[in-house]
Amino acid sequence: MVPFVDLKAQYASIKGEVDTAIGRVLESCQFTLGPEVGAFETEFSAYCGATQGIAVNSGTSALHLALLAAGVGPGDEVITVPFTFVATVSAICYTGATPVFVDIDPQSLTMDPTQIAAAITDRTKAILPVHLYGQTADMDPILAIARARGLVVIEDAAQAHGAEYNGRRAGSMGDMGCFSFYPGKNLGAYGEGGMVVTDNPEFTRTIRMLRDWGAEKKYEHVLKGYNYRMEGLQGAVLRVKLRHLETWTQARRSAAARYDRIFSGSGVSAPIEMSYARHVYHVYAIRTQRRQSWQDALQQRGVSTGIHYPIPIHLLPAFADLGYVEGQFPHSERAAAEVLSLPMFPELTATQSAEVGDAVIALAQESRACAATA
Ligand SMILES: *Cc1c(COP(=O)(O)O)cnc(C)c1O
């Protein structure tokens, strides 16, 4: 049996450190924000190469507050991609603004910068690229268009802790970068969590207020804010886990390299690491036109897989009001139909990756034999 992710293996490897950190919070009774969260903000923003970090209670909250700090609201438009997790687009809707989609690049599966110019109107306020699967979008051309047109760039780096673009860290290239610490992410809390990182003190000040009821000082509410505070326990756990993140990222990259070696020359369509990228493999997705049968067959052989994501956002019933139709974003639609995420976590052993790889290769050979006789 190869699970899709294995959070128990990771806890077992850091149990002593985590239990001590949790004990410290329980003794201090600093259950929300507090010194552990403050220290984690300093440590994680430094890890990202940003000067400021504002911890919140989810990646979705991070996106919501980054958009609000950028002044995005009703009547505005925000350019993003339809091939992402729903939270990217929902956060735009929370502000009252309208999401405007552009298609992805078929190799990187991230925002195609050549599509942006045609999507800009005089209502456009921000561009929200998504660093999907742990690989950054092609940021230089995105930043160039944004600068030329006076637009804010907010990175959805929820899947990209420690990913790099030509040596720059995810989250530090745009005006703000948003991270999720959902348990299954590369840096996962034992509960929910998120952070905005930025170099901009004005955005920092606004987001610090908005996450805690818009208060400048206790009971002096200068903005209509939210209860988006990070819990003390999550800050303490995340500080412990951040110390291991580089090791875990290297382990993910090694696991991906093992898959790549098994698939090379086999006809299996493996993910592409762009020349600009350090991919951190939150997800390792192959592509196949026989996804359903491959997923079922792998499950029968004891290999659990996932699909990230089966329906592009513009075709989801929840977003029908945006008025998009099938065929408008062909690369997103095709990716949504073909991607299949293989087991990927730092503790994945060489034996397990070989077992998965061999099972996939066998399916590819069967599919070719079927195609030849059809
Ligand atoms: C996980 C995720 C989010 C949302 O983060 P939460 O912490 O679950 O709210 C946003 N965008 C992307 C691309 C994600 O993968």
Give your account of this protein's structure.
With 374 residues, the protein is an alpha/beta fold. The chain folds into 2 domains: 7-102 and 112-242, 3-Layer(aba) Sandwich (Aspartate Aminotransferase, domain 2), CATH 3.40.640.10; 246-373, Aspartate Aminotransferase, domain 1 (Alpha-Beta Complex), CATH 3.90.1150.10. Helix content is 41%, strand content 14%. The protein has 12 helices and 14 strands. It has helices at 7-28, 34-48, 59-69, 86-94, 116-119, 139-149, 201-210, 232-242, 245-263, 291-300, 330-338, 350-373; strands spanning 52-56, 77-80, 98-101, 124-127, 152-156, 164-165, 168-169, 176-180, 194-198, 215-217, 220-221, 277-278, 284-287, 339-342. The strands form 4 sheets. A 7-stranded mixed sheet has the order 1-9-8-5-4-2-3, sandwiched between helices. Strands 7-6-12 form a 3-stranded antiparallel sheet, with no helix packed on it. A two-stranded antiparallel sheet has the order 10-11. A hairpin with a 2-residue loop joins strand 6 (164-165) and strand 7 (168-169). The relative contact order is 0.16. The protein binds pyridoxal-5'-phosphate. Pyridoxal-5'-phosphate binds next to helix 3 and helix 4. Pyridoxal-5'-phosphate is lined by residues 58-60, 84-85, 87-88, 130, 156, 158-159, 180, 182, 192, 194.
Radius of gyration: 21 Å
User: Mean pLDDT score, rounded?
Assistant: 97
- Which class of the largest domain in CATH terms? Alpha Beta
Distance between the termini: 33 Å
Cα shape: globular
